[in-house]
């Protein structure tokens, strides 16, 4: 597969699997949690509350790891390493709002609502026991 095909396959995985695992560092130890992810083909976005531990962890260490796409019926997923920033852009918050987030936030205008913007630095497409570097 060429790089464009690999990149498109990774985008397809993200489009089909919005829930994945975000790992951050907490007191020099990894901490992982399930999150909902969206993308603009350049960056990943995830919705969170400004008061969560992950926001503080990212402020202290912006390096993150994301796993997206694996389930019992498929053998492929992506592993992404990147840098996260906290984003409070009103237009982006409206764009990535999803009603499934209501248990945690009161809507796109909730003052505690922010986005994690993840800029990929290294992405691998894993298919069975084969790993292919996308970037």
TrEMBL record:
Source organism, top-level taxon: Bacteria
A matching Pfam family: PNPOx_N
SUPFAM superfamilies: FMN-binding split barrel
UniProt domain Pyridoxamine 5'-phosphate oxidase N-terminal: residue ranges: 7-126
InterPro entries cross-referenced by the UniProt entry: Pyridox_Oxase_N, Split_barrel_FMN-bd, Stress-Dev_Protein
Protein name: Pyridoxamine 5'-phosphate oxidase N-terminal domain-containing protein
Lineage, top ranks: Bacteria, Bacillati, Bacillota, Bacilli, Bacillales
């Amino acid at each position: 597969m060429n790089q464009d095909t690999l990149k498109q396959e990774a985008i397809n995985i993200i489009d089909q699997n919005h829930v994945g695992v975000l790992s951050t560092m907490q007191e020099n130890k990894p901490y992982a949690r399930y999150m909902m992810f969206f993308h603009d083909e350049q960056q990943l976005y995830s919705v969170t509350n400004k008061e969560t531990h992950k926001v503080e962890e990212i402020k202290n260490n912006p390096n993150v790891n994301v796993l997206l796409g694996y389930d019992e019926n498929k053998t492929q997923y992506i592993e992404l390493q990147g840098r996260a920033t906290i984003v409070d852009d009103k237009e982006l918050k409206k764009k990535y709002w999803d009603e499934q987030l209501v248990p945690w936030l009161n809507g796109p205008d909730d003052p505690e609502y922010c986005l994690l913007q993840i800029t990929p630095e290294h992405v691998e497409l894993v298919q069975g026991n084969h790993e292919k570097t996308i970037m």
